[in-house]
Design brief:
- The structure holds two protein chains of two kinds.
- Chain A contains seven helices and five strands, in the order H-H-E-H-H-H-E-H-E-H-E-E.
- By secondary structure, chain A is of the alpha+beta class.
- Chain A has one domain (3-182): NADH Oxidase (3-Layer(aba) Sandwich), CATH 3.40.109.10.
- Chain A has a four-stranded antiparallel sheet.
- In chain A, helix 2 (23-35) crosses helix 6 (105-128), helix 3 packs antiparallel against helix 5 and helix 3 (53-69) runs antiparallel to helix 7.
- Chain A is globular.
- Chain B has one domain: NADH Oxidase.
- Chain B has four helices and five strands.
- In chain B, helix 2 (23-33) crosses helix 3.
- The radius of gyration of chain B is 17 Å and the shape is globular.
- The N and C termini of chain B lie far apart (39 Å).
- The mean pLDDT of chain B is 92.
- The chains are: A alpha+beta, B alpha+beta.
- Chains A and B meet through helix 1, helix 2, strand 1, helix 3 and helix 6 of A and helix 1, helix 2, strand 1, helix 3 and strand 5 of B.
- Strand 5 of chain A pairs parallel with strand 1 of chain B.
Chain lengths: 191, 163
């Protein structure tokens, strides 16, 4: 598949099958994604992988620890909470991505931007191999209990979780606004 | 060309040749790049194009390039939404880089100090609820006498949860 078709045909996968995801494949895709991002320096990012049912359950516990203890969480019946958790822990694999903070905002943003680029390439390379993903940045992930669980350090920022799994059905596409409608040409002040 | 074929080529440095880059080509690539994942289909981006002749205002701020694409991100809502939108814009830029490479175009993805100064960005038409997420320096890339790209395989920072 050429690059243009790949970019346009990729979909975010919210519903995946129970088929396990091979760790070797994830490592291979990540390595290839890194080769497309040569500006990323050693030590500027890190990925933590949860690819077994046990690891997936552990990650789910970190995510829900805060919610269970919060006022809102106490109002949610235990069984309903279990349903929430199960939907998450049933996903075969998760890749948590973290960025190193730089000495100032531009350098932090540059690094963060390159890591987003890496994650996009990783999603595309996965799609090429039939592996679906969903980039999750849900606000309820952003809490101390979760950050501790994944081992986020003080000099790091959480970028996102990619949920990985194989899929039966490809979701329909949603139309994009043509670039022409978001386009301005800057004419020089001197002609 | 598949995406895997591009890996390894992206490590080569970008050297522009003196050949104009057409708006039509940039738009064609962008219309594919907009298929980037973005939360709630907010499409939090817009584009400002200029070239070497018309981009005098960028002189001193950016390296010389045949064409410049200023990529503007929405800066609305809470900090979390702003971060999501910035990430979505970065995915779009990544798509654009990959697509451009296929057409023989080199892209330098820049994010400099001046892009955080409102007094400067406003002169390019960046609004109050927006930020300049990147300036892309674009041009046809000089073909280099082969020689392997300077990419050294480094250990992958890949860890297992709980270890």
């Amino acid at each position: 598949m050429n690059v243009a078709d790949l970019i346009m045909e990729r979909r975010s996968i919210r519903k995946c099958t129970t088929r396990p995801v091979e760790q070797e494949l994830v490592v291979e895709l990540l390595r290839n994604a890194l080769r497309l991002q040569p500006s990323l320096e050693n030590g500027s990012w890190r990925a933590v992988y949860a690819g077994t049912p046990e690891a997936s359950k552990e990650l789910t516990d970190y995510i829900y620890v805060q919610m269970t203890e919060s006022k809102l969480g106490k109002l949610i019946p235990g069984k309903l909470m279990d349903v929430f958790k199960k939907r998450f822990s049933d996903i075969p694999a998760h890749l948590v991505v973290m960025a190193a903070k730089g000495p100032d905002r531009p350098s932090s943003d540059r690094n963060y931007a390159a890591i987003c680029g890496l994650m996009q390439s990783f999603q595309l390379l996965g799609w090429e191999r039939g592996l679906g993903m969903l980039w999750d940045t849900d606000p309820f992930l952003y809490h101390e209990g979760f950050f501790q669980g994944i081992g986020l350090r003080e000099d790091e920022t959480f970028v996102g979780i990619l949920h990985l799994g194989y899929y039966d059905k490809v979701p329909k596409s949603r139309r994009r606004t043509p670039a022409e409608r978001k386009w301005t040409v800057l004419q020089g002040s001197v002609t | 060309m598949t995406l895997s074929d591009l890996a390894g080529e992206m490590g080569r440095p970008v050297h522009f040749i003196d050949r104009p880059v057409s708006q039509q080509l940039i738009l064609e690539l962008l219309n594919c790049a907009v298929w980037a994942p973005n939360d709630g289909l907010r499409e939090p981006w817009r584009f400002i194009f200029t070239d070497r002749r018309n981009g005098q205002e960028l002189r001193g701020l950016q390296e010389p390039a045949p064409a410049y694409l200023l990529v503007v991100a929405k800066e609305e809502g809470d900090p979390h939404i702003q971060e999501e939108d910035f990430a979505a814009v970065c995915c779009l830029i990544q798509n654009f880089r990959l697509l451009a490479h296929e057409k023989g175009l080199g892209v330098r993805w820049t994010l400099h100090e001046w892009m955080y100064e409102r007094s400067r960005t406003v002169t390019f038409g960046v609004g109050d609820n927006e930020r300049l997420a990147a300036v892309l320096e674009i041009g046809y890339n000089a073909v280099h006498s082969e020689g392997e790209p300077a990419f050294t395989e480094s250990p992958l920072p890949f860890e297992l949860l709980g270890n």
